[in-house]
Structure formats: structure tokens, C-alpha cells
């Protein structure tokens, strides 16, 4: 029932709290089934660690099906482990082999301080959204949903960008810890819809300002973000964002 | 709702210039500045190449081109000022962005990943600096005539024999080699830079990404080949003194 | 315990409209003086917090994730129902209400359900205005599909990520209000206690999950929108963090817990692969539109599926329910799967699985069409199992998915504790004994956007409670209780991890109170849970300290609550001596279908906590059906 079993060496970042010094620590996990998800392997590791009276490795996770954006591990240097369109929680151990050594690290960015072990603070993303990642409409009084037809193509483009799960892998993968893919995805989602258009220029301006204030880096167009994005959001959204932002300097 | 909107649109009270300056130093803005100056420098490179290629048409045409350029101070100074401004601004913006980038990723990963990003895209600073260093040498040789072999005689019409200087220079393998290496570096820089500038200026749509990436590569190395063809032609004897 | 459902007078069509007119209002300038706590920022909580703050109330909102955008609502795939009748196929508010009441096996309060159907149309309008990118037709209008066996196409969807898109809409509305300074959002804060002052809910105690700080928050009213309790079964399709703590703490402070035994088992989930399994993944129900469910006729047949000839296969849903076939409702399809597996005909490792086979559809429609329809689901299946459903039939098995039970609320969504309002999956109100597909999202948003903004004002206008601060002794006491409980967990230093207790509880619950329940099993369960709970308090090992981010400690609190709540669930299942919807008592079986006992159980069971070691008391709210006549659900 448990498939092929493996023994692995896990090097994992341990850090007691936000201010503390951290370090990589190595553990050996046995009886890892190839059918386990990566997080189930981490659960198994934690059971073993706790059996020895140590505190388990803290990591963020919730839905464990690739949609909440909570899980966030850099696995062998690549956020979410480097399989296209897959989050850490969906990564399965069949991609590893007996005897492998695996490096597990938290997202690394000035704007995402480590809170403990693999848990980082991503509230910067919320603060960016708060600066304009919405349509300023209150509850009530909305016109009939079909009153304004939206070309399917535009709706699809909006949806492509709206799929972002806000996990922050883009930031973690970028050598500059840039949040451009995340920010631009939101702008692209709303910018492709007539409902989002009236505020688009203010939106990009204010979100870009907050993005800088949070201490994210610049986009160097390496497309590492696109490569690791579990929702495969394309870097074209960044070009759209730049265009709107330039426009906003003159019209905004 | 009105309240929510009020709060969001914190007006900065800046003038257009003031706000543009602010933008120019922001993360996206400094990239836009880099893109615009990069675009200028790229156009210069193309124009320069076009001029250089006249060498294939022989001594007369080439020297004529050099004369024409010199004989047109507005054009010459236009280009010079553009370069004098373009280079430093391009570099300042680069410094600004890379400082921000360093600060944004203070702790490195313990495991260095293999990535799909090209070497060229990851070493823009390096290729940029090397090209800059070469540029200084190049000026010293071809513009200020302080290094490299220089022709000892003037042309019959009394002007400088740029063609001979070119040929004499490239007949020296070490000069040709540095030149070609510099072109390869420039090509690397452009192969990512051109794509990047389109991206930073938001000048293209979804369909064009792969095309643009390839085009950027092709243009970069195409320019390199065209430039390199001149020293090669000299050394192989196609371009004769 | 006083249970006044507060259903307005009048014909069902007029109740909500008239009620809204009759509700006392608070003048806008005064709204600012009221503070409301909203716990939970899923669809229900985020929509409520945003809408209430737009009206002027001061909001403190809490969630345990690191961002409101990650609430479990994000995981909903299929869609959201609304009686828009855009397809001109005969849908109406009345029909949606009727389907919901019937789907709930006539165990829901019809007035609430009718209102739900009524405001469903506004939800879609609101979401589109917010920029939710619903699927559209080429003409630019909204697209619909039929879902969960409904006979009309009333489900709106955004690819396979409807919950995500709706939640992001609500989250953005919330962040808009955060930016306006009208909502204070507290992420990574877990509610540990409800504070009741003079019989009114007046605040909560939270734990800051980053630094362990225990804090008290006072307000004029409390809204719980903390989701469902499916994780009492350990393995479920719910997110790992879903818990009963907020609800259970409120129940222990006097809020009635209604119908805890109503749990929904979803038939199409990926089967468990091993003991280490941490959660189960739902595969959208839409797969049953083109997939055929079968098992081998012979028990213990371990041949690979392509080796089993056609006449040795049992397409049991098509055989038993010829008119609905593979589209039989969730509870029925789930039980049928369990039955064939119990007979030893299950497939895959462990024998707990049935095939969902697309071979015929692929032959008929071509691989391309199938991949267009289900491509991402097939990919997801491959990612998880490593098998390719285009060539090998999928294996599926039922899993716990949704909980219809929850805190009891009246028509105004207020619990029997004045001031405590409960929204979304956390309350019991709309789905009776079984929820129809695409109705939970609808309910969460209906409650948050369109019901609570009206009804909470009426409470505030009439309650006239004095202001309290966190200096009040009740707050002090609650903080002390929380601290003491944490200290207790940390001091036990036993041998077993928290997770091992949770798993064991889950197994007990699933085996004896899962898809099929009987008196004997439930009685055993009612012995086993207290024993496990006793061991937990003696032998659990919670390392670390209370003053830091401590995942084991967080989990300990939740599991301790599940260990109490699980017993109530089992008790409710035992006392509800009938079958209805998701609650299937083997004693009450009509050829494999749930047999209701309307004469004895046409009511909601509402449990009152009587203290530790005491048997909780069962109260009832009789259900009266005036608009819709109870009938027998039959899908033969
Ligand atoms: C896999 C899956 C697919 C589904 N698909 C559909 C579908 O297609 N259509 C449909 O209609 N329904 C679907 N559902 C059901 C639906 O998603 C949920 O019922 C609904 O989203 C619940 O919303 P909610 O706002 O009530 O709670 P949730 O979204 O669960 O939110 C709970 C909130 O409470 C907070 N919280 C909980 N406990 C505490 C605490 N102690 N302290 C502080 N905060 C706390 C959480 O942080 C969170 O913010 C699906 C469910 C699952 C599991
Ligand atoms: S845990 Fe939700 S995306 Fe991984």
C-alpha cells in the first residue's frame, strides 16, 4: 500500500523566531513512500523529530491541494520544487529517489521576514492589494450581471491573471526578490475587465508605490517567476503593468 | 464609498516634472529610464554599424562617411551629447536598481539552483561594465587617437585617413580580438537588453513573448556578427589597406 | 435554552421584504460608535466584514491564516448557484428554494432557504461588479452549467476555481475597507474563547500565532464565520486548518449546536494512498457527467481494469438508479460505493476505491473533447496518483466534504446567545441534512453581503447594552482560562503527538459515524471517544513554549476541541433515530435509501452544553413546511 520506500536526508532551515539567527540542520527521514506528498514527508519528519522531544519544523500549509497559496518551501533552490504548475503541497515524493539529499528553505526576501523555520510573513502582499487591488464598489446596487457583456477573450485574459494564489513563489525565485509578477497579475486581472478600467491607472500607481515601500526588488526580466509560478501566470502581465504605469505618469 | 476613494487617492501634490523624477527613481521607473537610454544606445550602435559597414565599399566611401559625420557638427554633437548623457544615466539607473535588488534579497539560498535563465540575462551588470571599459579603449583608439597604430599621413584633401587607421588597427590581431570579444559581450548584453526594453516599456502583447525573446537574441548576435565581419575581413584580406 | 426562530409572518415570498422594512435602523452617524468583531474571513466573513464596514460599523476581523485570501472557501471548485434563469430553462427563486429544501431532505428551515434563493441573484450582480471573472459565452454573457444533478443550468463558475475567484472578490472588498481604515484585519490570530457578559456575546480572546500573545477584544456584537468541522474525521477534503474551535468555544459558553450529525460525504475523491495520508482531494463532481462508475462483479478480483471483460463489470449506479445513473446525488453515490467495497469488490490498494472510467466517453467524443472538459482535473489526478486517467480508469472513493450542522441561528442569523451571529458553513441554517452542489458558496455570500448587514443593525438598535471594555472580569477570566489551558497542554509531556490523537479520533469517527451509522457502533463510539480524550489529556506531547509560533500547541487546542465535539456528533447521530440526507442510519433503510421518520424527527436538534462530564441537553426546533410539501426523495 505504501509503494516504494525511501530514506532521505533533509537539510532544513531552522530559526526560532523572527529576530533569531537561523541555520540549516540535517535530518534523516526513513520510510518515505513514493506516494506521499512533500508535506506528508515533512509530517513524517516532524513525527520523528517530536518523538525525540524536539519541536517540529514549522511550515505554512492549509488546503494541501494547490489553491490556498499557503505552502511555501524552496526545495533544492527552487520554490515549490520546480515542477510546472505544482505547489509544494502537490509535489509528490515519486520525483525523488532513495538516498537523495533535499534542501528545504524558506522564501528569501527582505519583504518576507522569516517568522520561524519555514514560515515567512507575507503580509506585504495584503498591503499592496489594499492600495488598489480591487474595484471600488460597495455592496448593493450593482447592475444586472448581464447588463454589460464582456468579450470572452477579455474575460479569459482576466481569469488567466486572476488565478494567482498569492503564494509568493515569484518573489522567492527572483534573484532580485521582485514582486512584479504578483502585482502585475492583479492589475492585469482587473485591467482586462470594464469594471476595473476606470481605476486602472491609479491602481497601478498606488500598488507600485507600495511595492517599492515594502522593499521588493526590480524586475530584470529573467522570467524565473513565470517558471515557478504554480498557476503559470505569464510575464506578459508585467509588460501590461509597465505600460499602464507609464501611462499613469502622464494621465493618472 | 467616497471616503474610501478619498483615502486611496493620496494626491502627492507634485508637479509633472516632480512626479516624473520620483517615478524615474522608483523600481519600475528606473527600469524605464534604463530602457529608454538603452534604446538610444542601441540605435546608436545600429547607426554606428551602418557607418562601419561602408568600409566594405572601400577607402573612399568610408572616409567620405567619416568626413560627412565630422562636417556636420549638429549631428555629431547630437550623437555625442546623447552618448554623454545616455551612458551615465543608463549606468546610474543600473546602480540604483542593483542596489535595491541587493537589499531585497539579503540572505542567499543555501542551495544554488540550476535555472532556465540564460547566462546573458544574469550577467547584465558584468557585460555592461566590460562593454563600458572597451568603449573607453575604443574611444582612445579611434576617436582620440592616443592608442593603437595611427596613420602618419593625411588624405590628399587634408583630412584624417580614418580608413587607413581602421585597417591598420585591425591588422593587429590583438586589437581585432579585443574588438570581437567586446562585440560578443555587447551581443550578450543586447540579447537580453532588447527583449527587456520592450518588456519595460510594455510595448508588446501576449503573443509576442517567444518571438521577442528570439528576435532579441538574433538582433544581438546579428549585430555582433556584422561588427565582427569588419576586423575579420581586414585580417582575411577582404578589406585592403 | 430559548429557541425563537423569529421567522417573520406572511407568505414565504414576502417574508424577507417585509422583515427588512420592519427592522429598526441605526442612523449612519451612530453606526460609527458600534464595534463588531468578525471571526473568519472566508466567503461569509470577508463579505460580512466588508459590507458592515461600508455601512459605517467599526470592524475587527480575524483569521488564522496569514492572509484573509487563504480561507478554505478558496478551494471550492464547481460553482455557485443563483436563480437568474439566464438560460430560460424554467428556473426561478421558488424552484431553487424547493430544490434546496428537498435536497436537504426536508430538514432545513424553509423561510431561510427561500431568502437564500431570493438574494442569490444579487450575489452574482455584486460579484461581477467587483470584477469576478466568471466564465462567459462568446456573446459576452455569463455562462452556466448544470451541477450536482440539478435539472436546470443555474451554476455560475470561473473555470475550476469558483471559490477562489469569489473569495478573492470578497477579500479585495475587505482590503479596500482595510485601506479606508474601516476594518482592522488581524491575521494569524486564532480565536480561543468567546466572552459573554450579562448573557450577551461581547468579545473574544485570541492568540497571536506568531508570538503567542493572548489578547482580549471587546465589541458590541460578535460574528462567527469560522467554517465547518469536517476535520473531526481527520481525513476530509477540508483544508488542514479547518477546525471547530471557535464554534465549540461558543457552544461551551451557551450557544446551541444544531444537528452536528449532518455531515456530507462526497463521492468523487481520490482514495487514501497510505496511513500517512494527511488529507483527501476532491475531484469535481462534474466528472460523473462523462465517467462511468464500476467495480468488478467478483469479489477480490485484482486484475487490472483493462483485463476485466465488459460482462464481468458491475456499473452499479446505472444498474441501481437507471434514471439518474452515474449522476445520482452525492449521498446515494457515496453509500453505493461503500457498499460495493464492503462486499470486497473495491479496487486499488486497500480495496477502498471504485473505478471512474472515461474509456467510453473518449471513444465517443474523442480524447480532445474530454481533455477540454476535464483536462485540469485529469492533470491534478496524475500529479497526485502518478496515473494517467486517459488510459487507466480513475479510482475514486467518498470522503467527508461538508458539514451541514453548526451553531443554531434564528432567521436573523443570531444564535440563542444575543449578539452572537453565525454565518456560512459555521451555522446550521440552510442545507438541512444534505447540501446541494454549488449552494455553500451561495449561502456564505448571501449571509455576508445581503443578510447580516440588515439584521445585525436590528440587534444593535434594540439590545441597548452598556459599553464594556476588556477590563471587565469576564474578559480577565477568559484570558486566564486560555492561558491555563495552554499551560496544561505544555505540562503534560506525554508520549504521543497531537497528530496521532487526531488521526485516531478520525478513524473512530469515520468507521462508526461516517457514511453509515448504527446504534451499536454509535454506542461503542460514545465509549471510545471519552477514553481517547482521557488519554489525550494524560499522554499528549506538546513541545515548545506558549510564547512563540508553536504549531503543536495550535493543533493541540483544536484537537482537544474535536475530542469533545466528536462525542456530541456521535450522540446526535445516535439520538436521531432516522435516516435523512447525509445522516444514514442502517436501521432506517429503504432499499439502500435514507428513510426519514417525519413523525418523530421533523425538527432541528439543538444541543446545550451542560459542563464537562455532563450529558448535553437536546432541544428541538420544530420545522414547519408551509410553502413546500415534504416528499420522499427518490432517484430511482
Ligand atoms: C474541496 C471543496 C470544494 C467545494 N466546492 C464547492 C462548490 O463548488 N460550491 C459550493 O457552493 N461549495 C463548495 N464547497 C463548500 C464551500 O467551499 C464551503 O462550505 C464554504 O466556502 C465555507 O465558507 P465559510 O466562509 O463559511 O468558511 P471558510 O471559508 O472555511 O472560512 C473560515 C474562516 O474562519 C477562520 N477561522 C476558523 N477558525 C478560526 C478560529 N478559531 N480563529 C480565527 N479564525 C478562524 C479561517 O481563518 C477562515 O478565515 C467546497 C468545499 C470543499 C472542501
Ligand atoms: S497548502 Fe494550499 S497551496 Fe499548498
State the share of residues found in helices of chain A, binned by percent. Answer: 25-40%
Distance between the termini of chain A: 61 Å
The number of helical runs of chain C is 17
* Largest sheet report of chain A: 5 strands, mixed
Encode the helix/strand succession of chain A as letters: EEHEEEEEHHHHHHH
Portion in helices of chain C: 25-40%
Strand content of chain A: 5-15%
And the CATH topology of the largest domain in chain A? Fumarate Reductase Iron-sulfur Protein, Chain B, domain 2
What's the domain count of chain A? 2
Shape of chain C: globular
Fourth CATH level, the homologous superfamily of the domain at 265-400 in chain C: Succinate dehydrogenase/fumarate reductase flavoprotein, catalytic domain
The shape of chain A is elongated
Mean pLDDT of chain A: 96
Summarize the structure.
The complex is a heterotrimer of chains A (252), B (241) and C (636). Chain A is an alpha+beta fold. Helices cover 34% and strands 15% of the residues of chain A.
Describe the structure.
The complex is a heterotrimer of chains A (252), B (241) and C (636). Chain A has 252 residues and is of the alpha+beta class. Chain A has helices at 38-51, 123-130, 152-162, 169-173, 180-191, 200-213, 224-228, 236-251; strands at residues 5-15, 22-33, 74-75, 78-79, 101-105, 114-116, 119-120. Chain A has 8 helices and 7 strands. A 5-stranded mixed sheet of chain A has the order 2-1-5-3-4. Chain A starts with a strand and ends with a helix. Chain B is globular and about 60 Å long. The longest helix of chain B has 32 residues, at 73-104. Chain B has 10 helices and no strands. Chain B has 241 residues and is an all-alpha fold. Chain B has a single domain (29-104, 116-236), classed as 3 helical TM bundles of succinate and fumarate reductases (Up-down Bundle), CATH 1.20.1300. Chain C has a 5-stranded parallel sheet. A 5-stranded antiparallel sheet of chain C has the order 11-15-14-12-13. In chain C, strands 16-10-20-21 form a 4-stranded antiparallel sheet. Chain C starts with 14 loop residues before the first helix and ends in a 14-residue tail after the last strand. In chain C, 60% of the residues are buried. Chains A and B meet through helix 6 and helix 8 of A and helix 1, helix 2, helix 3, helix 5 and helix 9 of B.
What does the secondary structure layout of this molecule look like, with pairings?
The complex is a heterotrimer of chains A (252), B (241) and C (636).
Chain A: E1 5-15, E2 22-33, H1 38-51, E3 74-75, E4 78-79, E5 101-105, E6 114-116, E7 119-120, H2 123-130, H3 152-162, H4 169-173, H5 180-191, H6 200-213, H7 224-228, H8 236-251
Parallel strand pairs in A: 1-5
Antiparallel strand pairs in A: 1-2, 3-4, 3-5, 6-7
Chain B: H1 2-8, H2 16-25, H3 27-53, H4 59-70, H5 73-104, H6 119-122, H7 124-143, H8 162-171, H9 173-201, H10 209-236
Helix pairs in contact in B: 2-3, 3-5, 3-9, 3-10, 7-9, 9-10
Chain C: H1 15-22, H2 28-31, E1 35-39, H3 43-55, E2 58-62, E3 80-81, H4 93-103, H5 110-130, E4 155-156, H6 162-179, E5 183-186, E6 189-197, E7 200-208, E8 214-218, E9 221-224, H7 245-252, E10 257-258, E11 263-269, E12 292-296, E13 313-314, H8 316-320, H9 330-342, E14 354-357, H10 359-365, H11 367-385, E15 394-403, E16 406-407, E17 420-422, H12 440-463, H13 473-492, H14 498-513, H15 519-539, H16 551-575, E18 589-590, E19 593-594, H17 598-601, E20 603-608, E21 617-622
Parallel strand pairs in C: 1-2, 1-9, 2-5, 9-17
Antiparallel strand pairs in C: 3-4, 6-7, 7-8, 10-16, 10-20, 11-15, 12-13, 12-14, 14-15, 18-19, 20-21
The complex binds flavin-adenine dinucleotide and FE2/S2 (inorganic) cluster (FES).
